[in-house]
Amino acid sequence: MQGVLSGFAVIAVVIGVGYAIGRGGHLGDQGREVLTKLAFHVASPALLFTTLARTDLSVIFSSRLLITALSTAAVAAVFVAVGVVRRWGVGRTTIGALCSSYVNSGNLGIPIAVYVLGDASLVAPVLLFQLVGVTPVALTILDLTGGGGQGPLWKRLLTPLRNPIAVGSLAGVAVSAAGVELPGPIMDPLTLIGNMSVPAVLLAFGISLRGSTLPLRGAERGAVLLAVGLKSVVQPLAAWALAAGVFGLRGAALLDVVVTSALPAAQNLFTYASRYRVGETLAREAILLSTLLAVPVLVVVATLLG
Predict the structure, then answer these.
(1) Can you list the domains of the chain with their CATH numbers?
(2) Which region, left, alpha or beta, applies to residue 216 given φ > 0 means left and ψ of -120 to 50 means alpha?
């Protein structure tokens, strides 16, 4: 359990520093917004590009990827269906669907894969699926429904190519697929810039907690409970059912799939919500609660399947 505890400890400390910064007003009234824009427009695209450019894309064709895709689609579809019935709006429903299914495969997934599963590459399928498949689609929806849908059809179809997160992801995949090894003078600065992404996201999240109400006390209570329940309970159960019942995985392979599915909602979802100014409270509370619940959930999963 060292990987689980150390991963959460690192995140908690950085979020706590962000909260202290916000409480002290050290970055001014626009500190959170500046950090969010830095992460969205500069640091995260650089991180995604360098990560994917160095990744072996053969993992795309693994059974783990298909299980991840199916379990993600299943829980996201449940939230979307409820959102349609409750008329939560496209943008808010998109953020909620992401909080229900988009796991923290980077700053939590990698250390947990190393310390709990023994192999950092085991998180690659979910990382690639989210970066290459889920993120461009979700951000395109948010672009189009947030005012980016104005103009001629050809301009609207090119929306993904104007989104820095999607551009960074797709460019990294292209470099990896071409088998090109970029020289140090290109990769080193991008790596340095990309290293700002996770700290900036966590600090912005911590700043956002200053002055916020306790979770589950506002108008978003129902949506937050639904997102957290789907993320923390339904998604790992769906992954287990698919892996064991459909694909016949057993032992370590089954543990790998369920552990990665049980990771909490990713902190960068709050960056997306802040960037598009939709579902910010929903994202903040769902991320916070799913992160707190992930510790006991991962302990139970490791105990039952380990």
Answers:
(1) 2-305 (1.20.1530)
(2) left
In Å, how far from its chain's centre is CA 259? 15
Average of per-residue pLDDT values in the chain: 86
82 vs 3, 20, 75, 100, 117, CA distance in Å? 35, 37, 11, 12, 35
pLDDT of residue 163: 74
Nearest to 90 by CA among 235, 225, 224, 276: 276
User: Alpha-carbon distance 150 to 156, whole Å?
Assistant: 7
| Cβ atoms of residues 123 and 109 within 8 Å | yes
Q: Which of 3-17, 149-163, 275-289 has the lowest mean pLDDT?
A: 149-163
Residues in the chain: 306
> How much is the pTM?
0.78
Q: What is the pLDDT of residues 167-188, one digit of tens each?
A: 888 898 899 999 999 999 999 9
> Cα–Cα–Cα angle for 116, 119, 124, nearest 5°?
110
Partner residues linked to 103 by β-bridges: 265
Q: Scanning the structure block, which residue is given the tokens 């085991």?
A: 122
Residue pair 111/6 in contact by the 8 Å Cβ criterion: yes
